[in-house]
Design goal:
Number of domains: 1
Number of strands: 5
Strand order of the largest sheet: 1-2-3-4-5
Order of helices and strands: HEEEEEH
Shape: globular
Structural class: alpha+beta
Radius of gyration: 13 Å
Helix content: 10-25%
């Protein structure tokens, strides 16, 4: 899995910043999870969100993991979907890495 945490630190984004939008969603076990919305990227006309768990220890890169989710709009609400397909995940990951390396 690509190391988006290291990538965003190199880009100079302060992930401790409180100005990020906070997203609340339901986790795999039915619990409420709060995430910082770091970025939205578009790959092949589909939006994807890069999210950081609010309680992540960003000083510990091994424990800090940025989450990549598909983003869909349903009327006025946004729905965050887990990317189950490995090929889709790899395609989006590579597009993000290539885009960041071009900056």
């Amino acid at each position: 899995m690509p190391d988006f945490t290291r990538l965003y630190k190199r880009k100079g984004i302060n992930m401790k910043d409180n100005d990020f939008e906070i997203i609340k969603t339901i986790g795999e076990n039915g619990e409420e999870v709060e995430l910082k919305l770091l970025d939205i990227v578009n790959v092949n006309d589909v939006d994807y969100a890069l999210l950081l768990p609010l309680d992540a220890d960003i000083d510990n890169e091994e424990e800090c993991e940025i989450v990549l989710m598909r983003l869909k709009q349903d009327d006025s609400d946004y729905i965050f979907e887990t990317i189950e397909d490995e090929d889709e995940f790899e395609l989006v990951s590579q597009a993000i890495i290539e885009d960041e390396s071009n900056d």
